[in-house]
Specification:
With 440 residues, the protein is of the alpha/beta class. It has helices spanning 23-40, 59-75, 91-95, 98-102, 160-182, 301-308, 338-345, 366-378, 388-400, 406-425, and strands spanning 2-8, 16-17, 20-21, 44-48, 80-84, 106-109, 126-130, 136-142, 188-194, 196-197, 217-218, 229-233, 239-241, 246-248, 265-272, 275-283, 290-293, 324-330, 352-359. A hairpin with a 2-residue loop joins strand 2 and strand 3. It is elongated, with a radius of gyration of 29 Å.
Length: 440
């Protein structure tokens, strides 16, 4: 007898990407996942948080979620789901349909269960998973994203939040060990979590910091050694910690350009004779590629335009599957026509322009220039002593490594002259001491 489980996380249903709707990609992923479930016939699915991208998900993204659950249960009537809330989810909203879900072997844990006196109920996190013969082969500890108010209070702790999380896992694992000893002696212990593990790789552009200040990284020993597998969500790159006992499966689609080279996957666990005997990655097809021009670094605009000219003309595939494009251009000075020239070069191309990033050219002595500009500002006694032309010249020099051109300086002088003329025509300001008081 054996038990097969799929580990997935970080769906972020409802995400928009630089103004583009990701629903076609999420629909394609869920269709792939449903087909995979039907083909491989696992006993259970673990979804470790961030089902949705926002706490107020759209009606469409919620419909995607519920329709998928219904289709999966219709195709596989024995399929068990364990779903936890992530930091992007509205925890109470996610678990609101629990009464309905549990009738279909779908267990959702969004909030931290407590009794009437406010005490933690460790046994309420535990979800038994049974094989095709009805034998419980795994006890899952379904822990959602934990906020500081969710964890046990530990008087005298140097770090009450991180130590509180460790204590919560200790209590829930101890409760699972007791249940295993009393009722399910062959069951393997598995935990879910939505957290940031110390030393794990993160993608800064799309992973929201869990705690202000970034002091949220857990150590691997947060998870007791009796846990055979820890299924994590939050970090979008698939990765293994502690010899593969702790794993992030990663997100099913890239959620930022920093993730464009990730191999997205779900993980298939096989449990047999009280242990996890294998973990197999199932690679998810890329439904809409992410493209960067140039592939590395940044080049001048003319060189960018030459590379854009080589892109394939559309439509080769449906527009919803066109690559998203990020362009990196050397910032060699103000250019109001830069975006227009890039958009013109992309006309008729089978890509979607998502982002134009300006990259400052590397220069020697940049820090000295910045320090000199900062010193000039620090020495100013009042705003009235600052010369606008000097300030603009120093700022331009700091950013671009060269003085501004005569045309730009002429524009600034024209603005300053117009402002001076306007000031002269205004009536003198009334002092606050003599101003009449308006009575309503």
């Amino acid at each position: 007898m054996s038990l097969r489980i799929l580990h997935t996380a970080d769906w972020h249903l409802g995400q928009t990407f630089h103004g583009y709707d990701r629903d076609p990609e999420h629909a394609a992923f869920l269709e792939w996942l449903l087909t995979t479930l039907i083909e491989r016939k696992p006993d259970a699915v673990l979804l470790a948080g961030d089902v949705f991208d926002t706490v107020n998900p759209s009606a469409l993204s919620q419909r995607r979620f519920y329709t998928f659950l219904a289709a999966a249960r219709t195709a596989l009537p024995r399929l068990q789901f364990v779903i936890t809330a992530g930091n992007h989810d509205a925890a109470a909203r996610l678990e609101a349909p629990s009464g309905l879900f549990e009738a279909f072997q779908i267990r959702v844990v969004g909030t931290v269960p407590r009794d009437a006196s406010g005490q933690l109920r460790p046994e309420s996190f535990i979800v038994p998973l049974s094989n095709a013969q009805g034998v419980v082969e795994a006890l899952v500890i379904a822990v959602p994203f934990l906020r500081p108010a969710d964890v046990p209070a530990l008087p005298g702790s140097n770090d009450p939040y991180l130590d509180g999380i460790k204590e919560l896992y200790r209590l829930t694992t101890a409760a699972a060990e007791q249940l295993r000893a009393a009722v399910h002696p062959q069951a393997v212990l598995i935990a879910l979590g939505h957290c940031h593990l110390s030393g794990a790789a993160e993608s800064h552009d799309s992973e929201r910091r869990l705690v202000i200040g970034g002091a949220e990284s857990l150590r691997p020993d947060t998870f007791p050694a009796s846990l055979a597998y820890v299924a994590l969500g939050h970090l979008h790159k698939p990765q293994e910690i502690d010899g593969g006992r702790i794993r992030y499966c990663g997100s099913p689609i890239p959620l930022s350009f920093s993730e464009k080279d990730y191999e997205h996957r779900v993980l298939e666990l096989t449990v047999n004779a009280g242990r996890v005997v294998s973990v197999t990655p199932l690679l998810i097809p890329r439904f809409a590629p992410l493209l960067r021009v140039p592939s590395r670094g940044a080049v001048a605009l003319d060189a960018v335009l030459q590379q854009l000219d080589t892109l394939a003309a559309g439509p080769t595939v449906a527009a919803a599957r066109w690559p998203y494009l990020e362009v990196h251009v050397l910032d060699d000075g103000p250019d109001p026509r830069r975006r227009h020239r890039i958009e013109t070069a992309l006309q008729g191309k089978a890509v979607r322009l998502a982002s134009i990033k300006l990259v400052a050219p590397a220069r020697d002595g940049g820090n000295a220039t910045a320090n000199a500009a900062a010193a000039a500002l620090a020495d100013a006694a009042t705003l009235n002593t600052l010369d606008a032309e000097i300030l603009m010249t120093e700022a331009y020099q700091e950013k671009y490594g060269a003085p501004p051109g005569l045309e730009l300086l002429a524009c600034l002088r024209e603005i300053l002259m117009a402002e001076t003329t306007a000031d002269a025509s205004r009536p003198a300001a009334t002092s606050l001491a003599t101003a009449p008081v308006s009575r309503v």
